[in-house]
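Input chain follows. Return structure tokens only.
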Amino acid sequence: MRFVIKKTIATLAIFLVVPLFIIAINWHWLPDSLDNKTEYFFWITETASYPWAIITSIIFFILFCALLTKRSDHVLKKITLIWVILVSVLLSGQIIKSIIKSQTAEPRPYVLWMTKEFNISDQYFYSLTKPERAEKIHQLLKDSTVIPRWLSKHWQNETGYSFPSGHTLFSTTFAFLAIMLLSFRRHYFVITSVILWAVLIELSRLLLGMHSPKDLILAIIIAWCISLIGYVYARKWHIVDK
């Protein structure tokens, strides 16, 4: 366990660099952060949004199974155990995230911007039901020349609380699992690609006005901890040997 902690600590630091740098420069989301390239980050963030996150999870599951069961005995058993670990780790992370969100009730950055721009309170916004929040965003922004329509629709689909970031938790969990489960077999290209994807997800959540840096920090720490637990069971069930 000590070895795998050392092996993942550098990646943990890489993920934390993004929110810590944003805190250091005292950057806060405003519409002037948007430009023509921001929509690319929207498509990246969609890979961790429902329902596309299901497809992403299936792709990772198939990838992990293909790489971890190659030239192995008891392939069906290993595939089942990989599925159990992935589902357990992902679900536990999302449950933890949902509990924290409900307890802290932190408004999203875009909500704070709307409260100032349209003279409404965040308490009022979050007192509405989810369909009412979505309709409120639509009404406020339908004629906006500042907020593009695709971003307005994204906000309408995600009207919940901010702290911590579920998208960051989802993507960094897969990144940590890739390191813990695949690095011993030297699948470095796959691991690097997953880490890069997770970093881009982090950036997308900031640039789209969905999260603040502290949301990302807690999500990353949760992802690291639950992935370590998943690794313990991967070793116990002989999915990995080290």
